[in-house]
Amino acid sequence: MNSRNVCHSLAVALRFGTTKLNRSGWNPSRRCNSISSMSGQLGGQLSYVQRMKMLQNLREKTGITEEVIRKGKCLVYYKGDPLLTENFSIAWMDFDDLQVEPKLFLENAMLLGMAERGEFQFAVQIVGFGKESKQAVLSKSQGSFTDFRLSLMMMPTYEASLASKAKAIFNWHRRNTHCAKCGSPSVRNSTASCRTCHKCEEVWYPTLSPVGIVLVADTTKSNLLLVRQGRHPKGMYSCIAGYVDSGETLEEGIRREVAEEVGLTVLSVDYKASQHWSFPTSNLMIGCHAIVNGNETLDVDTSELEDARWFSVEEVRRSLDSIKTNPLETMSAIKEGTDQFFVPPRGTLAHSLIDAWLSG
Ligand SMILES: NC(=O)c1ccc[n+]([C@@H]2O[C@H](COP(=O)([O-])OP(=O)(O)OC[C@H]3O[C@@H](n4cnc5c(N)ncnc54)[C@H](O)[C@@H]3O)[C@@H](O)[C@H]2O)c1
């Protein structure tokens, strides 16, 4: 996008219109004001702060206009799978290439974010566009629809977080069509950031559940505790994870989960990183490293876990190295099933926590 288009996007989004929007925030007749007052301030790129202010303004004040849609790039979903290039990057599409009316587009789309050069980023589900939509998209793009879980493991981190966000928000709207207070139908706003009840006007926002996930080491730091659930692919051992309960701090949640699942006492917890995770709904994974008293006997909760085991640092490093070197081969081995021990693939917070511990 050139600097003229950047100025235009900024003007479109920063306009504090007095026009009354309809309930969905969609106002197709709105037009752009002069941008001359801003044109001197902008180079080719927008700062992080400018972009966040523009997105906030679209969500909370102006809503999406046709001009904004036409300036956008779209991450396209078909039946839950994103359109990716052969290198597992998002195959962004222009709105015009989707050949759909703006109103129908908006009913099936959500505002994802904004790129540094000022392009609005949308996610759109094309199932609602009709029978021919999949073929039409494939013929106009360089991409193919890729299994969602595989996509998250293979995409660049930033793009994976966009894909995860879109999936979670679409799911939330599908499951929350009525007001939880009075039971009447609710309607989504144009950016898809919330729903408003038609009757009592209560506003509902997408929910997000906090999950503590922890890589446990013993006091010697030469052994790591990994666990597997029955639903994990054969051979895979991961970190302990569990939902943080209402009233708990993150640290308390982690201490409780480790006690419940493997019967060990946590001596210390350090926060490391977080990740959005859309399986099965919308979770914020909060990743930590913990030290436990390794002299205690493991007491595994077999209703939650199939197994929990101490692994030497060397064993874990070998598995991590092999996944890093051959991510695609590992993913197909995981799909087909293997007797070999392996750690979670890249794209998961468990993988990052193990990687950070081994490089720390
Ligand atoms: N990204 C990663 O590296 C990674 C690794 C491990 C687990 N996870 C994710 O962490 C989450 C939690 O893992 P888990 O093994 O405890 O999951 P789980 O789905 O087995 O849930 C365990 C229990 O928590 C309760 N529960 C379910 N949803 C809840 C919610 N929204 N709020 C509060 N309690 C809830 C239920 O009683 C359930 O039996 C899952 O979504 C899982 O996919 C991600």
Automatic annotation (TrEMBL):
Q: Which GO terms describe its molecular function?
A: hydrolase activity; metal ion binding
Which residues are in the Nudix hydrolase domain? 206-333
Q: Reaction catalysed? A: NADPH + H2O = reduced beta-nicotinamide D-ribonucleotide + adenosine 2',5'-bisphosphate + 2 H(+); NADH + H2O = reduced beta-nicotinamide D-ribonucleotide + AMP + 2 H(+); NAD(+) + H2O = beta-nicotinamide D-ribonucleotide + AMP + 2 H(+)
Keywords (alphabetical) are:
Hydrolase, Magnesium, Metal-binding, NAD
Q: Which cofactor does it need?
A: Mg(2+)
Entry's Pfam families? NUDIX, NUDIX-like
Q: EC number(s)?
A: 3.6.1.22
Whether rRNA-binding counts among this entry's keywords is: no
State the protein's name: NAD(+) diphosphatase
